[in-house]
Amino acid sequence: MTIEEFEHLSSSSKIPDYFLGVDGGGTSCRAAVSDRSGAILGRAQAGAANITTDPDGALQTILQVCRQALEHAGLAQDLELYPAYLGLAGSMTGQAGERLKPLLPFSFSEVRSDGVIALEGALGPRDGMIAILGTGSLFMARQGSELTSLGGRGFLLGDHGGGARLGRALLEECLLACDGLRPFTPLLEKTLAGFGNGLSGVISFAKSSPPSAFATYAADLFSSAGQGDEAAIQILSEAAHLINLSLDKIRFDGCDALCLLGGLSRSYDSWIAPHHRSLLKEPQGDGLSGAISLAIRTFG
Amino acid sequence: MTIEEFEHLSSSSKIPDYFLGVDGGGTSCRAAVSDRSGAILGRAQAGAANITTDPDGALQTILQVCRQALEHAGLAQDLELYPAYLGLAGSMTGQAGERLKPLLPFSFSEVRSDGVIALEGALGPRDGMIAILGTGSLFMARQGSELTSLGGRGFLLGDHGGGARLGRALLEECLLACDGLRPFTPLLEKTLAGFGNGLSGVISFAKSSPPSAFATYAADLFSSAGQGDEAAIQILSEAAHLINLSLDKIRFDGCDALCLLGGLSRSYDSWIAPHHRSLLKEPQGDGLSGAISLAIRTFG
């Protein structure tokens, strides 16, 4: 099909033939293009697209990755021909998403959080809840047209269930143990030993590291807790308490599905309270498939 | 006295006639020069001297403020004529103090933490403990020649009793209350109302503010706790618990003096456990007077 044929078809039917979906996060930005049935015709991936910290760079990355997905599908790369549904990290807080929307060249566009597309991807059309437990933590529920979101808010003040906060809590306990205000446990000793110059190494690391670096300690915490390490159990109990409180808060009557997403989803499995754990389902798809599905539902 | 006379006197007696003391902190750097009796002959003050974050700038500030103090005293400004005792913020952690020492032009120099000179200033020659409760928190004890230090470690992982951590805990509780995971209290409502655009205002503030900005919430916390605000009482109870644990840890048999120093010393007074509160004494002097006193004791 030539561009002329495509344009004719598009304008005559008023229903687009192709749909773009974008999953833009702090570490990578992915795009896909599908037909009306949802079949993926092309995909592409690029680096980070953080519209809060780097709006100009994020815009360029989004446009580039969409053009690449179209190229991969063998379709015309004129972005104004296609509707796009974007799920972007950071678009829940502040007005970054609102500022971005008028700058987008797509025929139609919708900008929502990465949580929204993750929920659609995980649950498909059904109602239910998701908990995204990765570097940060975010909770969402959908009941019919009603969407509830809770948590997130970043490393310093929020994201209590995320790996970065877990790692920070672990390093904080290490320092308190050095001061004799907490008993040393095997995990605290092991963690401290990992810093060549001990205490001052921990402080230097904390000053210079992004949240994702703190999150690398999460795996140690879960395995140590499994071996009865009291510091690990204490830190994870507090995080799990807030996770379960958050699920209590967003859960609606009749909710029968909960998907755990993100890098810590398997690790947290056994820490989820029984009344929520009984709802656990495997996610149907990822955020990018959710973006495509929402693009078709919104613009199709 | 001319410089020639001074130099002759210094070299013949081997005991310096004049002593420099420096109190270098994250917000200001002060110097004083005294005679052998400790009488202050000249003083000067300049901006921050943080040897950890800005070693070159800190060195220049220290030398400049010493020259100004000598000028104020009407003494020759050749720094190599005088011994100096420096108490510098940040010199406890890392090797910043060790790196600085060979760069100093003084006839003799000693570089210690600001805590060391604060202790000497507060207690004079007697043994005892100090708690520095300002933006951060630090605890020290001296028994004879033995000096014990505990706490500090900075905003992200330490300084649990300091105003910056108190403010951060308050903002964190505000976000949890917004998510319905904590009950709103009058203080949480008031704090949130202070941010024009609510929740996203809190997050923006947290991302862009230094610890000292977080510390501005400490006063509200203490006054609200006095009015029975449960969030304030909870936050201060946890901080006070670690303060009292820290004092338990550094306290030695026969200790009969405790000085509370820093901007929050009056506010925390009633939160100190009775067995420590019974030791409370008014500080004799400040960190700069402590630096002078240590200069005379060390080099005199």
UniProtKB/TrEMBL annotation, chains A, B:
Coiled coil: none annotated. It comes from the Bacteria. GO terms for molecular function: kinase activity. Keywords: Kinase, Transferase. InterPro entries: ATPase_BadF (IPR002731), ATPase_NBD (IPR043129), Euk-type_GlcNAc_Kinase (IPR052519). SUPFAM superfamilies: Actin-like ATPase domain. Transmembrane segments: none annotated. Residues 20-268 form the ATPase BadF/BadG/BcrA/BcrD type domain. It holds the Pfam family BcrAD_BadFG. This is Glucosamine kinase. It comes from Roseibium suaedae.
